[in-house]
């Protein structure tokens, strides 16, 4: 095909710049590249060296920026006045008593009770074959404490500390099972020790279940009091009886005054073997050779103990079964098996057949085959449960009409790790079968990661994987608040703080209280910590206590409120630093940082062994020596227990001296209380009403006089008008 070009058309020559390559190695852009590249393998070596220098420069820049930021940051005051307790250096767990009087220490060969303020050993309980790894303390009486422990072999024991002595109450074991391969992973009692939940795990098939037992608390208190009286009478010096006087001699089968009723050694050994399973009974244990319990310094509790009452099994809870297809053969049968929908259930009763579910799974696998291969393989592990005890309320009315059940737990809420539902079971409902269905099921939109219950069990907070926190009022049965904390992290822990640190709304009428405000502390996986107001109808944004952490070493591993000082929390970071922070001031500077001696560092910062006792006055923590070959003052050893006197810290003096009123989490006003309060208010205002009545009568007399004067004036004016018109 011919192409015609006009003769007057001028075609400009191509520009050299327009043909320049974007390649950095082109000699037109860089004259140094006019020479040929290095041959292999020198070309690869040159590239590696250049990349190495770039990486090193990035690391240097990051460290320099971090150093500048650290130098410009305002550092909190540091305190190092620590008291060293070398005899308890091998402590495995620490727990504070509810009233702050004592610190209970778990050891590789027993237990120890220490005075929280003076650090004096009160008593010890020794057994070379028991290494306590978990411990929970409940106050069940006047200076009587219940200790629920779990050792390294998966055996749980109940101890009672009373009259400066530790008594072994019961060795927990599975009731009705073989127990040959069963261990206990968790043991948690209610606030006042009425019930206890024990988590069992079968190591052979990874099966897990919960046994809730009712503790004979009142019987234990009476038995402890009787044991204390016998022990006191036994220690008193007695005058020798005269010869030939057999009036005080006990008869056959009668117990001597002061002689305790002991458990049969064979029965105790059988019971412990049933609980422990295949535990080695070798007396020459390495833990026993350590002997970490300090000799002297406090009375040792006798290992022989009185036979106390036995707990009663109330309910046995197993994890929810996987959802399977309906076994009905016809639609009519499927409709009969399906729930009516009046009560929310677990979703196991439905009308979907197994064939339908298999087809849905096959279609999903077919369309997402390219993505399913990259999913991580799920390892088979036992389902771990979390549970809380609740008193009766409008949401869980079981036991609400029982007069003797007031203030005591009547139900238990259980959720399983990885699940989206909370199951509530009754503890007071009479049932022949200990494995019964839940009374109520609460579903949620995402996987549950954390829950918290207020001390009165009236408030429940649920944290979800997507960063949402749901707060329920269990007494009234309504949802108090739903808030989305973050979109990039999950909720790790929730804690209700004492309401006396939260500002309360002033209500002039009615004269009785209607609602209170309280704070909820939320700790997220990205290191951020928030403070949420749980008041009814509150819409305020949460307070940021700690911002999001980008450095992995600065991520907190422990966030705990200080008992006795609710405004202050204890934070431990992954790098081993521990400091105290005021949550009410938002994102502010820490109050102080606790520093160990230069020869020691915090033991296992990812799971520190520490607690605060004495109502916030003393801090106990375990630290290890950095260099075992280096001597330090005052003692030597691999690990020690350090005690910090927080009341000597100037920045905490104002918090420890502060007076805090007693404010409830939720106000429960019955009709009788409301009528009584209104009647008292009416009687109190009687004097003011009489005064107002007298003032009203006085004003009424003046008003009548004024009205009479007006009438007389009008009458005179009328008479004058008539005389003028009719002269």
TrEMBL record:
Source species: Lingula anatina (Brachiopod)
- Cite the record's Polar residues compositional bias ranges: 275-288
Bias (Basic and acidic residues) ranges: 258-274
Q: Compositional bias (Low complexity) at which positions?
A: 229-238
Q: What is this protein called?
A: WD repeat-containing protein 93 isoform X6
Matching PANTHER family: NADH-UBIQUINONE OXIDOREDUCTASE, WD REPEAT-CONTAINING PROTEIN 93
An example GO biological process term is: electron transport chain
Superkingdom to which the source organism belongs: Eukaryota
Transmembrane residue ranges? none
Q: Where is this region: Disordered?
A: 226-305
């Amino acid at each position: 095909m011919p192409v015609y070009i006009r003769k007057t058309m001028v075609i400009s020559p191509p520009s050299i710049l327009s043909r320049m390559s974007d390649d950095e190695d082109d000699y037109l852009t860089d004259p140094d590249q006019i020479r040929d590249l290095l041959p292999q393998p020198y070309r690869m070596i040159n590239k590696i060296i250049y990349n190495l220098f770039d990486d090193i420069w990035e690391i240097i820049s990051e460290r320099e920026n971090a150093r500048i930021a650290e130098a410009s940051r305002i550092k909190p005051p540091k305190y190092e006045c620590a008291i060293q307790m070398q005899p308890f250096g091998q402590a495995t767990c620490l727990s504070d008593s509810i009233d702050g009087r004592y610190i209970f220490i778990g050891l590789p060969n027993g237990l120890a009770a220490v005075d929280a303020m003076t650090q004096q050993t009160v008593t010890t309980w020794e057994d070379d074959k028991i290494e306590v790894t978990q411990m929970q303390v409940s106050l069940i009486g006047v200076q009587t404490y219940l200790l629920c422990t779990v050792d390294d072999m998966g055996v749980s024991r109940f101890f009672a500390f009373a009259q400066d002595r530790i008594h072994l109450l019961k060795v927990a074991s599975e009731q009705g099972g073989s127990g040959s391969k069963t261990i206990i992973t968790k043991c948690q009692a209610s606030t006042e020790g009425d019930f206890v939940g024990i988590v069992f795990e079968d190591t052979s098939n990874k099966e897990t279940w919960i046994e809730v037992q009712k503790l004979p608390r009142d019987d234990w208190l009476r038995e402890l009091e009787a044991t204390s009286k016998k022990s006191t009478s036994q220690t008193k010096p007695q005058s020798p009886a005269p010869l030939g006087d057999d009036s005080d001699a006990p008869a056959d089968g009668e117990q001597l005054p002061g002689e305790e009723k002991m458990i049969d050694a064979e029965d105790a050994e059988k019971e412990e073997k049933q609980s422990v399973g295949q535990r080695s009974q070798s007396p020459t244990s390495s833990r026993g050779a350590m002997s970490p319990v300090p000799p002297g310094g406090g009375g040792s509790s006798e290992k022989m103990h009185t036979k106390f009452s036995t707990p009663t099994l109330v309910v046995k809870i197993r994890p929810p079964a996987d959802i399977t297809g309906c076994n009905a053969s016809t639609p009519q049968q499927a409709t009969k098996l399906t729930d009516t929908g009046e009560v929310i259930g677990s979703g196991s009763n439905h009308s979907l057949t197994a064939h339908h579910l298999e087809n849905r799974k096959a279609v999903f696998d077919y369309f997402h085959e390219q993505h399913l291969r990259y999913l991580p393989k799920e390892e088979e592990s036992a389902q771990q449960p979390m549970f809380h005890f609740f008193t009766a309320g409008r949401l869980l009315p079981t036991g609400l009409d029982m007069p003797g059940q007031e203030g005591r737990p009547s139900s238990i809420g259980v959720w399983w790790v990885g699940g989206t539902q909370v199951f509530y079971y009754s503890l007071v409902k009479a049932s022949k079968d200990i494995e019964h269905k839940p009374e109520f099921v609460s579903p949620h939109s995402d996987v549950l990661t954390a829950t918290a219950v207020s001390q009165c069990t009236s408030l429940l907070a649920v944290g979800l994987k997507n960063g949402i926190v749901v707060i329920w009022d269990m007494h009234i049965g309504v949802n108090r608040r739903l808030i989305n904390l973050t979109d990039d992290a999950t909720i790790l822990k929730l804690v209700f703080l004492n309401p006396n640190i939260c500002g309360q709304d002033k209500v002039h009428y009615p004269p009785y209280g209607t609602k209170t405000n309280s704070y909820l502390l939320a700790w997220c996986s990205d290191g951020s910590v928030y403070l949420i107001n749980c008041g009814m109808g509150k819409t305020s944004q949460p307070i940021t206590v700690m911002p999001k952490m980008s450095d992995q070493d600065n991520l907190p591993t422990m966030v705990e409120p200080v008992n006795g000082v609710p405004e202050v929390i204890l934070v431990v970071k992954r790098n081993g630093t521990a400091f105290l922070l005021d949550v009410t001031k938002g994102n502010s500077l820490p109050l102080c940082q606790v520093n160990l001696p230069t020869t020691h560092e915090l033991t296992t910062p990812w799971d520190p062994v520490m607690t605060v006792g004495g109502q916030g006055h003393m801090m106990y923590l375990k630290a290890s020596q950095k260099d075992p070959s280096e001597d330090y003052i005052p003692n030597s050893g691999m690990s020690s227990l350090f005690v910090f006197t927080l009341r000597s810290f100037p920045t905490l003096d104002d918090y420890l001296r502060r007076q805090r009123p007693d404010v409830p989490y939720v106000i429960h006003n019955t009709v009788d209380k409301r009528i009584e309060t209104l009647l008292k208010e009416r009687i109190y205002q009687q004097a003011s009403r009489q005064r107002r009545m007298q003032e009203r009568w006085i004003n009424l007399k003046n008003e009548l006089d004024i009205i009479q004067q007006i009438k007389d004036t009008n009458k005179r004016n009328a008479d004058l008008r008539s005389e003028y018109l009719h002269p």
